[in-house]
Amino acid sequence: MTNPKRGELRLEMAGQTFNCKINMDVIMRMEVGIGKSILKLANTLQGGDMTTADMVAFLTPVLRSSGDDLKDKDVQKLVWEAGLTGSLTAVAEVITFIITGNDNEGNEQEAASA
Prior knowledge:
The chain is globular and about 30 Å long. It is mainly alpha-helical. It has one domain (4-113). A hairpin with a 2-residue loop joins strand 1 and strand 2. The chain has a two-stranded antiparallel ribbon. Residues 104-114 have low confidence and may be disordered. The protein contains five helices and two strands. Helix content is 62%, strand content 11%. Helix 3 (52-64) crosses helix 4 (72-99).
């Protein structure tokens, strides 16, 4: 069970599950890797301008936060296996998680009980 209040996010890619821990260090590494702020990354994703290199740069620090010692090559392989749609979905999940203040899980539980 993940705790979104502590920045914990379960991310699934290419049939693998990663229990990531999103914190300020991970966010800064994402921004530096792509050279854009999180909000600009969201706009890039929305505009369909995200390259596969951007996806790898974005996902590497996120997936490494799970405790797995993944390198760029490992993440490239995951992006390839997950496909563009699966990889973009993972990126969108992380961006949403960051922008919404990690508060989605409570809303999902409320919606499920309604």
